[in-house]
Amino acid sequence: MVIIGGGGHAKVVIEALRAAGFPPPLGILDPRPPAPMVLGVPVLGGNERLERLRAEGAADAVVALGDNRLRQAMGGRLAELGFRLPPVLHPAAQLSPTARVLEGAVVMARACLGPDAEIGLLAIVNTAAVVEHDNRLGPAAHVAPGCALAGGVMVGERALVGVGSSVRPGMVIGADAVVGAGSAVVRDVPPGARVGGVPARPLGEGR
C-alpha cells in the first residue's frame, strides 16, 4: 500500500488501515511533507515516484488527501497507472449488510451506514458520521465528523458536509457545494453553493 498525502487526514487513514488489518504501508508520497515520518510510516518522496513504485510492484494505494478535488484528481492518476484503490473501512464503523462502499472510499471509526446507502468512489465518511438508509454520496464527496444525514439524502460529487451538520430526509446537496460546520440543511443546496447556519442559507445572506 502506498499512501498519497502526509497531513492530518493521513494520520486517520493510517490508523484505519492498521485497525482493519492491512499490511504495513510501503510509505507515503507527499511533495511537501510535514515530517520525514507520519505515525511511523516513512515519507518516500513526492508524486514523481509513483511510476517507479508501480513498476517495482506496488499495487495498492489510498489517497489520504482532505481536499476533494485534489483527492479525485490523484485517484484518477493512480487508476491510470494501474494501482488498485481498495476501500478502507475502520472495523469500529457500523455498516448495514446492504450498504455499498466503492473503490478508494474511506469510512472512519464509529461511522454508521444505513441500509442501501452508497458511498462513491474516493468519498469520505468521517469519524462518527451517520449516513442513513438510501443515501448516495457522489465521487470524492466528504461527510465530516459528527454529521447526521437522514434517509434518502443525495450528496453530489466533491461536495462537503461540514463538521456536526444535520441534513433532513430527501435533501439534495449539489456537486461542489459546501455546507458549513454545525448547519441544519432543510432545503436543497444548489451545485457550487456555500451555505451555513440553522437553518442553512447562503453564506453572506442577512439574518
Q: Could you list some keywords that capture this structure?
A:
207 residues, alpha/beta, 8-stranded mixed beta sheet, 6-stranded parallel beta sheet, 27% strand
Task: Describe the protein.
This protein has 207 residues and is of the alpha/beta class. It has three helices and 24 strands. The protein has helices at 8-19, 50-55, 68-81, and strands spanning 2-4, 27-29, 37-38, 41-45, 61-63, 88-89, 94-95, 100-101, 106-107, 112-113, 118-119, 124-125, 130-131, 136-137, 142-143, 148-149, 154-155, 160-161, 166-167, 172-173, 178-179, 184-185, 194-196, 201-202. The mean pLDDT is 96.
Low-pLDDT windows of residues: none
How confident overall, as mean pLDDT? 96
Task: Return Rg in Å.
Answer: 17 Å
Terminal residue distance: 49 Å
